[in-house]
Amino acid sequence: MTIDDFRPTKEVTTFYPPQRVLMGPGPSDTHFRVLSAMARPTLGHLDPVFTGMMEELKSLLRYSFQTKNMMTFPVSGPGSVGMEMCFVNMIVPGDKVVVCRNGVFGGRMVENVERHGGIAVVVDDKWGEPVDPQKVEDALKQNPDAKILAFVHAETSTGVLSDAKTLCEIARRHNCLTIVDTVTSLGGSPIYVDGWGIDAIYSGSQKCLSCPPGLSPVSFSERVTDLVKGRKDKVHSWFMDLNQLLGYWGTTTRTYHHTAPTNALYALHESLLMLSEEGLEQSWARHERNYQALKAGFATLGINYVVDEQYRLPQLNSVYVPEGVDEKEVRRRLLEEYSLEIGAGLGAFAGKVWRFGLMGTSSKIENVLFCLNALEAVFTDMGLKVEYGSAEAAAHRYYAANPMPSSFSG
Ligand SMILES: *Cc1c(COP(=O)(O)O)cnc(C)c1O
Q1: Residue 348 confidence (pLDDT)
Q2: Most buried of 109, 198, 258, 356 (most Cβ within 10 A)?
Q3: According to the model, what pLDDT value does residue 407 have?
């Protein structure tokens, strides 16, 4: 063997990804302002200029989460790391945790509780339905020793929004801390961390924040930081131990913990800046309006929603695949012919459901019209009876009749 024998057997050249339109369950399209932020010079993670940017990033995150929590920062890792971080810090082995499961991500929360030595009391709801507050109330009554209530605000596998405000109220009445998954809701649906009294919250960079994947914004109340500081055992993770991370992301000290992904953090800074320029309420209204227009178009195509209107996520549209349609073939053609990505069904919904994301930068008029047009064309080609042009026209009519408030700029 020579050194060259270890070279790749296939010729490798620079990777140029195609330009897609991302309308699946995440990642969403990244705005050029965010992409170009990533291409700026790498700084040392302890450089004072960089740590100044970190402070801005934390204040922008506090705005997007609507909190004054000091411990608000992005974890270096995808949403799943933010999830694990909450559980590993807050569960002392033997703790009882009430976990709501109405889709894939609630199921992952159960896994987290069990792997960190907790006892999971599972409150199940049907896929496509929100978490039932009455069931949570009952579970907490039957388990007065429960320490934590964990639930998913926006269940991306089904497209359902649960009532986080009510669930947090119930938890507080029963003296429980809360862990809330807002990976898909942050930026797309109202969240008030302080107003609702959420204790631990995590999100992801690549959904309604429209940043590349790989960062997980988190925020912890003082109740959580006190709990973690007071633990008798060490947190069962070196990397995710809040006490240690405080030394890097805290305000007073800035000591090496791990090398922060500097350029990825520039990107998050830029995307949060864009969100604050637009305004949270404007962003929520934009997500709602584009969902309404997509829905108007779907109605003409005979495409039906999985979720009852009142619980739907505007940023994640779960719809049934029409009878007799080869769902995989439709996704393949959308990707190959239109460079348009939509999501397949997960778990129990595999093969039966499509998921159309309208998240962050992807939530825009052009995408709604483009997607409806593409679907009509593909359906027509596949022999389905559709009235060509009707879906786009219906969406267009919705937009004309429902303008955004005048301060809307994008
Ligand atoms: C996407 C998602 C996650 C996981 O985030 P990753 O960045 O893929 O690790 C967790 N919870 C919900 C609700 C999600 O939509």
Answers
A1: 87
A2: 198
A3: 56
| In the chain, domain spans | 32-276, 280-401
Ligand 1 contacts CB of residue 105 (under 6 A): yes
Establish whether residue 156 lines the binding site of ligand 1, counting it when its CB lies within 6 angstroms of any ligand atom.
yes
Sheet holding 71-76, edge to edge: 71-76, 215-220, 200-202, 177-181, 148-152, 96-101, 119-124
pTM: 0.97
The span from the CA of 305 to the CA of 67, in Å, is 33
Q: Sort 276 into a burial class: Cβ within 10 Å, 0-12 / 13-18 / 19+.
A: middle
Which tens digits make up the pLDDT trace of 250-291?
Answer: 877 788 889 999 999 999 999 999 999 999 999 999 999 999
How far is ligand 1, taken at its centre, from the CA of residue 78, in Å? 8
Cα angle value 221/219/318 (rounded, 5°): 125
Task: Give the per-residue pLDDT at 406.
Answer: 60
Q: Two tokens at 252?
A: 């007073």
CA–CA gap between residue 387 and residue 224 (Å, rounded): 56
CATH of 32-276, one of 3.40.50.2020, 3.40.640.10, 1.25.10.10, 3.80.10.10: 3.40.640.10
Closest CA to ligand 1's atom 5: 79
Task: Report which of 312, 289, 309, 304 is spatially closest to residue 396, judged by C-alpha positions.
Answer: 289
CA distances to 10, 181, 330 from 392, rounded to whole Å, are: 44, 34, 18
| Host H or E run for residue 100 | strand 96-101
Question: Which pLDDT belongs to residue 249?
Answer: 85
- CATH class belonging to 280-401: alpha beta
Q: By alpha-carbon position, which residue is closest to atom 6 of ligand 1?
A: 79
